[in-house]
Amino acid sequence: MKILAITMLRYGADTPEAIVLSQASDLSSFGFFQRAGIKEMCTFFSKTIVKRTPAGQRQTVQHEDYNVHVYVRHDGLAATITADMEYPMRVAFVLLMNMMDQFSEQIQWQAETREEAIVFAPMQQAIVDYQDPAKADKITKIQRDLDDTTNVLHKTIESVLERGVKLDDLVDRSDSLSRQSKMFYKQAKKTNSCCVVM
């Protein structure tokens, strides 16, 4: 999972073209000579998609192996995240909303007409922090922890099933199980053993 670029733009009735106010990128996974071209493509896609997104809407546009997540606010502030296909859409939009809120609170951007005139440190930090969505996003972290727990439980159940004979002996010797429970266990095991689905 990788975020390539976060771009903050201004676009509205008074701007015929989208203006890139600020951009942060992490192109370290590409060769040195490829990086300038990739950055230009991220900027081009961001501007193009922002122009074609109605105000107040969010959308994700796929191009080859990458998604461009975009949100255009009614006040003319827009933002995009260019990330690979594996990057969770929900996390991308949480990041977009956070960055746009911080940007509009800290920066006077409404009259800016110069390309990449604003250096916005929180965006530079966010592209580092959000490379691993589970570290930056609590819900994704919880989901990953649940997945890990589920894997551990499956492994535990599988290891118990591998020792089936010992489990049978434990059931037979148990004083805490009633005779009826022991018979139910044996009957269920017998029933399940005859009905193997391939």
Automatic annotation (TrEMBL):
Residues 7-106 form the Longin domain. One of its GO terms (cellular component) is plasma membrane. Gene3D superfamilies: 1.20.5.110, Longin domain. SUPFAM superfamilies: SNARE fusion complex (SSF58038), SNARE-like (SSF64356). Keywords: Cell membrane, Coiled coil, Lipoprotein, Membrane, Methylation, Palmitate, Prenylation, Receptor. PANTHER family: SYNAPTOBREVIN HOMOLOG YKT6. This is Soluble NSF attachment protein receptor.
